[in-house]
Request: fold
Amino acid sequence: MRARKIPTLLTARLRLRSFRKSDIDDYAALNADPEVMRYLGGETWDRGRSWRHLAFLQGHWLFAGTGMWAVEQKDTDTFVGMIGFAEPEGWPGFELAWTLARRFWGYGYATEGARAALDHAFTVWNRERVISLIEPENRASIRVAERLGERLQGRTTVRKQEFLVYGVDREAMGGLREIRQMARAAR
Reply:
């Protein structure tokens, strides 16, 4: 087992933290929303399936040493969704994914949180490459991936569903980080 302490990541507006048992109501509501689940297999989940998936998410940290974080607003502690990594047995790569409650769409939270997770993967975990699997019709997630510096690298099929494979490697990410820092300094 590669268990490690689950880190907490902070951004300007968000806290990415370990899931807690008390998150079940918010997590179940997230997975029961048909619009949220539209590009994630298409079917909504009942509370029991959400509970089992939370257990899977926690187990991923134990088995892989990485995983998904619960995302909350720093100023209100309000549950926003989840952002993090998946690489279960047989997966096509080290995947960065994000799922937010619908009321938080359009505020830049997915990009903000995913950028913190991506930076952590490259600087702390020393990962060489990160991918994101995106359903071809999910234009919003494609835009997030592109804002992160990921580029379309191909297609793959997972559990009989086709996905676009977006990805970025650590070397390219280092260059993007320098560009962002120069842009901030110029403001």
About this structure: The longest helix spans residues 47-64.
